Amino acid sequence: SAVISQKPSRDICQRGTSLTIQCQVDSQVTMMFWYRQQPGQSLTLIATANQGSEATYESGFVIDKFPISRPNLTFSTLTVSNMSPEDSSIYLCSVSGGTGELFFGEGSRLTVL
Amino acid sequence: GENVEQHPSTLSVQEGDSAVIKCTYSDSASNYFPWYKQELGKRPQLIIDIRSNVGEKKDQRIAVTLNKTAKHFSLHITETQPEDSAVYFCAASKGDFKTIFGAGTRLFVKA
């Protein structure tokens, strides 16, 4: 298993600003995944972050809106840029255990006013 | 890309009864099918999984079945207890570990 720490755990932000979410893993992992979970909804994959290369974004998500950094094998950041109320959501960092199962951080609950 | 459909969206059962949640997937290349449980305010956690070379897997009160031909897989919970109340997500992935989730089923177990 992997222990994943995310911060901030929650934040309230103003429209038009940006927020960076940090994800720290207690072991080296090749792939990290960022998900969004809107209130009462499922988990939607935003992007896959590999160390040393650009993140791979899913349909509907673009780098300008959700820039991702992956400077090493234990850390990643997701920035939500130029926020609007529609970005209010829980953002989850996750890593694979090596055989397919995912381990999740506790999530970052973002409210945009 | 992969698409996972999940039914029902809400399920209410009496304590001690069984609960069944069904999912279908679209990508025949998917080979790993996990189920996650998410309690209110908590992160999703894996409860059981099945791979494409297996038709059924059981872990105490929880079982999962897979029909590759029909691209269906199901979660079965027997002897339900109030602590089973949560949201359950099915998911599918291929060798790249990119996991696509179903819409979720909110299970209520009434005491």
The succession of helices and strands of chain B, N to C, reads EEEEEEEEEEE
Helix/strand/pairing category of chain A: mainly beta
Shape of chain A: globular
The N- and C-terminal alpha carbons of chain B lie at a distance of 41 Å
Number-wise, the strands of chain A total 11
Taking pLDDT < 50 over at least 5 consecutive residues as the criterion, the unreliable ranges of chain B are none
Helix content of chain A: under 10%
- Strand percentage of chain B lies at over 45%
Estimated structural class of chain B: mainly beta
Number of DSSP helical runs of chain A: 0
Average residue-wise pLDDT of chain B: 95
Number of helices of chain B: 0
Order of helices and strands of chain A: EEEEEEEEEEE
**Biggest sheet details of chain B:** 6 strands, mixed
* Overall radius of gyration of chain B: 13 Å
Tell me what you see in this structure.
The complex is a heterodimer of chains A (113) and B (111). Chain A has 113 residues and is mainly beta. In chain A, 0% of the residues lie in helices and 52% in strands. Chain A is built from no helices and eleven strands. In chain A, strands 2, 4, 5, 6, 9, 10 and 11 form a seven-stranded mixed sheet that branches. A four-stranded antiparallel sheet of chain A has the order 1-3-8-7, with no helix packed on it. In chain A, β7 (68-72) and β8 form a beta hairpin. The model of chain A has no long low-confidence stretch (mean pLDDT 94). Chain B is mostly beta strands and 111 residues long. In chain B, strands 2, 4, 5, 9, 10 and 11 form a six-stranded mixed sheet that branches. Chain B is globular and about 40 Å long. The N and C termini of chain B lie far apart (41 Å). The interface between A and B is medium-sized, with 19 and 22 residues.
